[in-house]
Amino acid sequence: MVVPLPQVHTFGDWAHQAIAKHYQAILSHEAGVLADRDPEELHQMRVGMRRLRSVLLGLAPALMVPRAIAPQQVGRYGRILGQLRDLDVMGMTLAARYLPQLPAIEVDYLGLALKKLTKQREKQLEKVRQFLASEIYGQFKNTCRHWLEQPQYQAIASVEIHLILPDLLLPQLSALLLHPGWWIGYSSKKLPRKHLDELFATQSPVIHDLRKAAKRSRYTMEIFTPFYGSEYGEALQKIKKAQTLIGLLQDDAVLQAFLEKALGKMFHQELPTLCQIFHDNRHETWHHWTKLQHQFLQPQYRYQLHQTLCQPKSMPLAAQKSMSN
């Protein structure tokens, strides 16, 4: 079902538009996930769930939603899809990125892990199919559709959106900038590899949580790009880059955890080339990460980010341009 989008002026209008957009995206990939012909279908459906959850959280002051589409529930649905997506990412990364770089003897040994991964994926795919056929998922869709047809709002939803954008976005930015992950490994000098290895071993959960915080902020901020100019877009790109770099660090850690479980704790003895590639990639990624880390910890840059959010336009930039033509 395609829900018509309203004319967007108020806080509630923008919330309705965002929820409708991501709900429709989820539905558009449902058949593709069930058919299981293209992993991109699952990826996009999972992204739709994540974006919907971020909207429900970020725009919560305007919304009154039933439990079936509350952020916590949508997060659970997304995690079901995410478990299958994580297996897809591991399989594609091992096969496309790492396998071609390995000697024949390691290719054969890694093949054992890939076979186990395939079996895990088959089981998880069945769980996803069961979920999409479940009463819980059906209730989610029905509730979301009914809410879009007859939305329920808090009183603040009637306020013109540009009047409250700074109040809405600044807490999101502050939560991101105050995250302890920014300070992990922060130094004016290049850290020795041994020190970095210790950081990766002990601080991975905190760094990974920073990635989730960056993603939440980015998803909410992207809704309101029409009200801002190029500086806002550049800030979003930097947040996305932070998310991507941390993701690369996390992906290798997840791969190593999987290989240890699939092949045993001594798998590195059978896959020395692969483990060295992991090690080198991690340090190269960290080198790129530190440049971004230093920028986000500069007082002037943080001040600039806050000032950018404090100056939205009174109407979307696209509307301004159309009126001036």
The CA-CA distance between the termini, in Å, is: 35 Å
What structural category do the secondary elements indicate?
mainly alpha
For the biggest sheet, the summary is:
none
What's the rounded overall pLDDT mean?
Answer: 91
As residue ranges, the low-confidence spans are 1-6, 319-325
Shape: flat
Number of helices: 13
Secondary-structure element order, as H and E? HHHHHHHHHHHHH
**Helical amount:** over 70%
Task: Tally the beta strands.
Answer: 0
Q: What share of the residues does DSSP label as strand, in percent?
A: under 5%
CA-atom Rg in angstroms? 22 Å
Q: What would you say about this model in short?
A:
The protein is mainly α and 325 residues long. It has helices at residues 11-28, 30-35, 39-58, 71-98, 104-132, 135-149, 161-177, 193-223, 230-263, 267-270, 272-296, 299-309, 317-324. The model is unreliable at 1-6 and 319-325 (pLDDT under 50).
Topology:
Elements: H1 11-28, H2 30-35, H3 39-58, H4 71-98, H5 104-132, H6 135-149, H7 161-177, H8 193-223, H9 230-263, H10 267-270, H11 272-296, H12 299-309, H13 317-324
Helix pairs in contact: 1-3, 1-6, 3-4, 3-8, 4-5, 5-9, 7-8, 7-12, 8-9, 9-11
